[in-house]
Amino acid sequence: MAVAQKLKSFDIHAPNAREGAECLWAQMRELDGLHHGVASGGFHVAARYEDAMAVLLKPGLYASGAGITLPPPDGVRSFHIPAEIDPPAHREYRALMAALLTANHARAMEPDIRALVVDLIARIPAGESVDFVRAFARPLPILVTLALMGCPQGDADAVEQMVEDLHHEIGTGVATGAPARLKAYAEQVVAERRKTATDPAADIVSSIVLGHAFGRPLTPDEQMSMVRQVLVGGFDTTSIALATMMWWLAGHPDEVARLRGDPAAIELACEEIVRFASPSTYLRREVTEDTVLGGTLLARGESVLVAFGAANRDPAKFACPEEIVATRKPNPHLGFGAGHHRCVGSFVAKAQLRVAFEEILGAFAGFCLDTDQPIEHSTGLGQGIMRLPMIFTRA
Predict the structure, then answer these.
(1) CB 200 within 8 A of CB 193
(2) Best CA proximity match to 279, nearest among 18, 43, 3
(3) For residues 367 and 390, what is the distance between their CA atoms, to the nearest angstrom?
(4) CB–CB of 242/352 below 8 Å?
(5) What are the angstrom distances between the C-alpha of 174 and each of 49, 69, 171?
(6) How far, CA to CA in Å, does 373 sit from each of 242, 247, 364?
(7) What would you report as the CA-atom Rg of the chain, rounded to the nearest whole angstrom?
(8) pLDDT tens across 24-74, in order?
(9) Mean pLDDT confidence for 363-388
(10) C-alpha–C-alpha distance, residues 264 and 317, integer Å
(11) Alpha-carbon distance 175 to 156, whole Å?
């Protein structure tokens, strides 16, 4: 399909939405105004870095409170706190999570993260084809998220299935029962923790259960919503970044050698992987009053889709944007968002990436893509590698 035709029918939930997206993003950035999509009720796309930043830094004009998914919520539904709460209320809720997700807390978690990484690496078979996503990139962030919550690691498979079903339902409109299952799981976690929690610093769920906002304890619905938000936002993006990391390393043996010889350089490489992958590829905002963005008049109530993937590859902001430049510095990417809603778990996500880099480079003498099997990508709001067949050789 020609680029012009694909642009006209642009739909982030289409089965092949990630295929050729870079070309579509380039076309969008070159338009005089914002691209207007007709799928999902209609939306404008902020594809240029400058336009994306304008949206992210003006939460009063581009609101999250009406839902950040595309299509937008239809009718009454439970919102995710704090992702779908606007300032200043957003700050009260976010503080309960942010206190346990600081850079210092992420560093303190590293021994536990490393233990999980080492265990998952030990399970990867050598000399045969293995899907790196299912073997490593998917389970690691799920297990880390459950640890942050103080939940049993045995819940990992059930939680993963619920979140996958939820994304499928959002994208297709086909009921899966995932929203009700996630709500029930979050309610169960909250109810059990209320009986035992004594220290808000013990884990995120304890912080939520014992925490206060607006000078009062959270209601049961607020507690459930925040726990559900951690589940929904806690691992999809990190999984995509980890898979992108291995895809890149498999094709660049010179970079493998360089990073093995200079582990301190892994930090910059992690930032660049996040820029390139843009795991949170799209998020919606709703216009609260008539305004102009990128030369386009927007009316109150219209949807603006922030295209993080497109903004992070804007040549007006990044040199060689279509390449992973592991030494890129500075790197003002939007892979974790910006402004009030910048990813609250970014430090923990980067810790997982860095530790995974270190341990994988040490554990394997070599690795390559299994070219006999296809690489698959997800669709929807978070688009990235969801299946990565590889072959590993142990050190």
Answers:
(1) no
(2) 18
(3) 7
(4) yes
(5) 34, 16, 8
(6) 19, 14, 21
(7) 21
(8) 999 999 999 999 999 999 999 999 999 999 999 999 999 999 999 999 877
(9) 96
(10) 26
(11) 22
Q: What is the pLDDT of residues 110-146, one digit of tens each?
A: 999 999 999 999 999 999 999 999 999 999 999 999 9
Token code pair at residue 293: 């963005």
Angstrom distance (rounded) from CA 142 to CA 253: 29
CATH class of the structural domain 3-394? mainly alpha
Note the pLDDT tens digit of each residue in 162-214: 988 988 887 777 889 998 999 999 999 999 999 999 999 999 999 999 999 99
List Cβ neighbours of 209 (8 Å cut-off, separation of 6 or more): 190, 193, 194, 197, 218, 223
CA dihedral sign of residues 102, 103, 107, 112: positive
- Where along the chain do its domains lie? 3-394
Helices (H) and strands (E) in the chain, counts: 16, 14
Chain position carrying tokens 């990992």: 156
- The Cα 118–Cα 356 span in angstroms is 9
Q: What is the pTM of this model?
A: 0.95
C-alpha span between 385 and 250 (Å, rounded): 14
- Please list the residues that pair with 291 across neighbouring strands: 298
